[in-house]
Structure formats: C-alpha cells, structure tokens
Design goal:
CATH class: Mainly Beta
Number of domains: 1
Number of strands: 10
Structural class: alpha+beta
Protein name: Peptidase S24/S26A/S26B/S26C domain-containing protein
Number of helices: 2
CATH architecture: Ribbon
Organism: Lacunisphaera limnophila
Mean pLDDT: 85
Shape: globular
Order of helices and strands: HEEEHEEEEEEE
C-alpha cells in the first residue's frame, strides 16, 4: 500500500513539474488560453489506462473517459484518455478544459474562455467562436485534470503515435 502511495505521489509530482515547466507561449493555442488544461502525456495504451485509472482511484469525484471528435485538436486528439474531476462551479478558471452537457443533451469538452453574467463561455480550439450556450453549475460535468495520448512502441523501442490508416481512394 505504501509503495502505491509513493508511486502515485511520484506521478503527481511529474505532472506538477511538467505543468510548471510549460512556458507562456505553450499556454495559447489558436488564440485561446489553455494554460490551465493539462497537456497529454505520451504512454502506451495499457500504461495510459493504468495511470489514468490510478489517478481517478485516488482523486475524489474523478473518472476516466476517452475523448472523441476534432474540436479540441491539437491539444486533445480523438482517442485521448482523460481524467476528469467534479469540481464546484466556483472553482472554475479561464483556460481549463471542462465537460458540460448542452441543451441537446450532448456532452461537450471545450476550454473556458471568459466568465459572463449567465455563466462561462467555452470554445473548441477548432471552432471560430465560443459556444453560444454557457457552462453553468447545473450543466457542468467535470474538469480535465490529466490526459494521456496512447502511443505504440516502435521497433527501436522509442514511442510512436498510434495513427489510424487513411482509407484508400481509387481514381
């Protein structure tokens, strides 16, 4: 048990040090401040699931899911394994990536860009404007606290990103 606690603390330390080492330029993507959103850690898929599950198991109100879609690229590609945590609405900050349920009952993962009278404005990094629907306490699902980009080991032992082959088109 004590060994697991030390492993967990070591993992959290690595995440904190890597977050602190990020320079200001890395905090902006396509004109959107993302400095409060964790950068994905490269890991093999089994390692990514293991690390994400470990964090979720030791963090109250946390859960793991896999992101889909293109709205958060290049920060989070489809297939990114994310750890989310339920936080009080009053603790939200600009630059955090949140999950919220929109009026169509779909779950959306976007970055908080501004606080308004009726809630937070959020925006996908590939979207030209912020979402029209605000993030409010009643539709907030969680905040991304860790992310893992699954990779495979190349023959040389280095990590390589998993890529889906493009469909062949015949002329």
């Amino acid at each position: 048990m004590q060994r697991r606690v030390w492993q967990y603390l070591g993992l959290v330390s690595v995440l904190l040090v890597s977050a602190a080492a990020r320079d200001e330029a890395d905090s902006w993507i396509r004109g959107v401040y993302t400095g409060e959103s964790p950068r994905p850690v490269l890991a093999t898929e089994p390692e990514a699931w293991q690390q994400a599950s470990r964090i979720a198991d030791h963090t109250p109100g946390a859960f793991v899911l896999v992101g889909t879609g293109r709205s958060m690229q290049p920060l989070y590609a489809s297939g990114t394994i994310m750890v989310l945590r339920q936080l009080p609405y009053g603790q939200l900050k600009r630059g955090q990536t949140v999950l919220y349920r929109n009026q169509q009952n779909k779950i959306v993962a976007h970055v908080l860009v501004a606080k308004a009278r009726d809630g937070w404005r959020a925006r996908g990094l590939n979207n030209g404007i912020h979402d029209m629907e605000p993030v409010q306490s009643d539709n907030l699902v969680g905040v991304v606290i860790a992310a893992y980009k699954p990779v495979t080991r190349a023959p040389s032992g280095t990590l390589a990103t998993l890529r889906r082959p493009k469909p062949r088109t015949e002329n």
